[in-house]
Design a protein that fits this description.
mainly alpha
């Protein structure tokens, strides 16, 4: 799960801070509770910290979720940037999504659906823009063009992820990387050299 990867050594050299302790407590509570039922009171009890400590680090539960997703995106992007192969990088990203299906499903089935979808889209956009910005075909184009492509693809991929995690129609995320590469990058955006 996203939180365990971050806390149990996913990011090398990362200290086990209070923020990670709170994230780990949140993860533990998610196993037995719906996200909407988790309160700061429950969280500080689970983490054995004071309310003041929680509020020193986070303004509320959504800010904790936001921070956790940003940390996981940064972790995932380290792996993605280690390869110039779009298919491999996309598979790394979707494997990470698959490993965190439980967390995402909990967030998407709560009152935080829109908030979580927005965070997920920003994460997808970061991944997509990394490859789009390396494309020789787009280097001399207007920023608005690459921004539009990034936004359009981010919406599409986020929709596929949400459908896979939360929707009634299950999508195999393992098939998406090759489809993205063939349908989008081969036809419209040349691979980086």
């Amino acid at each position: 799960m996203l939180i365990s990867i971050l806390i149990d050594g996913g990011i090398t050299g990362m200290p086990r801070s209070t923020k990670y302790q709170i994230l780990k407590g949140f993860s533990a509570l998610l196993k037995d509770n719906e996200l909407d039922k988790i309160t700061v009171t429950m969280l500080v009890k689970e983490c054995n910290i004071s309310r003041q400590t929680f509020y020193y680090h986070f303004s509320d539960i959504p800010s904790l979720i936001n921070w956790g997703i940003k940390q996981s995106t940064a972790y995932c992007m380290e792996s993605v940037k280690a390869t110039n192969d779009i298919i491999v990088a996309t598979q790394i990203y979707f494997d990470f999504i698959e490993e965190n299906r439980f967390f995402l499903a909990k967030c998407l089935s709560s009152s935080y659906f829109g908030y979580t979808a927005g965070l997920l889209k920003r994460s997808v956009a970061e991944y997509i823009s990394y490859f789009i910005n390396q494309s020789p075909a787009l280097l001399n184009s207007e920023k608005e063009v690459s921004d539009f492509i990034t936004d359009f693809l981010s919406d599409a991929v986020t929709g596929q992820i949400i459908t896979s995690v939360y929707g009634e129609e299950k999508i195999d995320l393992k098939e998406i990387p090759e489809k993205i590469e063939k349908m989008i990058f081969q036809n419209f955006i040349p691979k980086p050299q």
